[in-house]
Amino acid sequence: MRRPYTFKNEYWQFFGYGDGWPPAKCEECYELLDKNQKPNKHCINCWKLEIFYSNCTDLDAVKDYFLEEGKKDHTLHGKWSNFKMEVPRELMTSIPEEGHPDEDIKEEGVILIYTQSIEERERRRKKFLDDLRARGLYKKEELSYRRGCLNFDQVIGNWKGWYDLDEDYVK
């Protein structure tokens, strides 16, 4: 049975069917991280594109764009925050920095797009940046990305040191 196209919890609105994304990937990742206290294949091959709300000219139109893209491409999925939060500048380690919110932004929301490889990350990053900019919906010249979940950095260190930045985990 296919999961719903959108669903919501206290913090996030999720979207997409996530075809090709292992159903228990996140749970297995958390279990391995808790058990071994080191990066694992799941977090190494989990890339997130970040679209910060303040970088969007029309946030509702950007959300609609991703909802429509996800209906066309069942492997696309992501989430967006239900409310703005304080920007943790000391934890904002995604690259390139040109995709970050401007320094004067103190509270921010984010859309996260999940990808499972460097190839997929770069393909989607280029497509989404080109599409959003062509529609006049995105102000910046870059979309930033990171590997794994933000809170993992506090447990196993900065994501940039987990594994070669130019390689996927292939064991």
What percentage of amino acids are in beta strands? Answer: 15-25%
Distinct helical segment count:
5
- The total count of strands amounts to 8
Helix content estimate: 25-40%
What's the domain count? Answer: 1
Report the major sheet.
Answer: 6 strands, antiparallel
Order of helices and strands: EEHHEHEEEEHEH
Question: Regions with pLDDT < 50 over 5+ consecutive residues?
Answer: none
Distance between the termini: 30 Å
* Spatial sequence of strands, sheet with the most strands: 1-2-4-7-3-8
Q: Based on Cα principal axes, name the global outline.
A: globular
Structural class: alpha+beta
Radius of gyration: 16 Å
Assembly status: single chain
Mean pLDDT: 93
Give an overview of the whole structure.
The protein is α+β, with helices and mostly antiparallel strands. The chain has one domain (10-161). It contains five helices and eight strands. The strands form two sheets. Strands 1-2-4-7-3-8 form a six-stranded antiparallel beta sheet. It has a two-stranded antiparallel sheet with strand order 5-6. The longest helix has 17 residues, at 118-134.
Secondary structure elements and pairings:
Layout: E1 6-8, E2 12-16, H1 25-36, H2 41-44, E3 47-52, H3 59-72, E4 77-81, E5 85-86, E6 107-108, E7 110-115, H4 118-134, E8 144-147, H5 153-156
Antiparallel strand pairs: 1-2, 2-4, 3-7, 3-8, 4-7, 5-6
